[in-house]
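Let us practice reading a record.
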Amino acid sequence: MAQFVRRPAHNPKESTINKNAVSGEFISSKSTILSSGPPCLDFDISENVIITTFPVGLVQTFGLGVTVPMNRVPEIGSFKWYFLRDREVWGLTINHALMDRGSLSKLLYSYYLIYDENTGELTNTIDPTKYPDNQVPTDTPNSGGHFMKLGSTFFEFPFGLHLDLLNSIPRDDYFGTSYSQWYIENVYIQAINFGITAGSSMIMESLNFQVGDVLPIPVGAIEVPETICVGGHTI
């Protein structure tokens, strides 16, 4: 007779499944860092390379999902199916509270803007050295720190996002280490929804994106310093 064997053995009347779990030992939004950076990681992660990213604050919700379109193919003479898998399709949505520091679209495009080392602030000025073959945008995508005109050539170029999920339990050599790291490559803003409500103390914006690819980073392959400076976050 066939049997299912559980390893380790478990009796639901005697204990929880995760027997060594302690209170608070969960991956949480409070210990997750989202920061914007270059469009892609076009190097070997084993190389000694420094990538400067910019932490994105006041994000209220972050959603990243993936689907793989599949076709069910029958055949004459059989009750069974064949399954044809297509390429994976990633989806991304972010809701953000509008802040003096700048709109979400500005913060996400930090790679293309000049960062002032003296003030620790991201300026509204485009950095021409970040564009390939001198293809620098000439039209204006913003009013002050509010970047919202998607028809501008400024948004013709993709950006990247570094997602770092940190362990939050205070153990030796454990607190602040990465549970997982992901780099979301070649991201484009598809839609910006901006709304004002009379009874709300905050103005919210919601952005939808198209994603080129998501790169899993082996834990420990890229070091993230414990100290994060005021404006930039170096990985």
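A brief commentary: The chain is about 0% helix and 40% strand.
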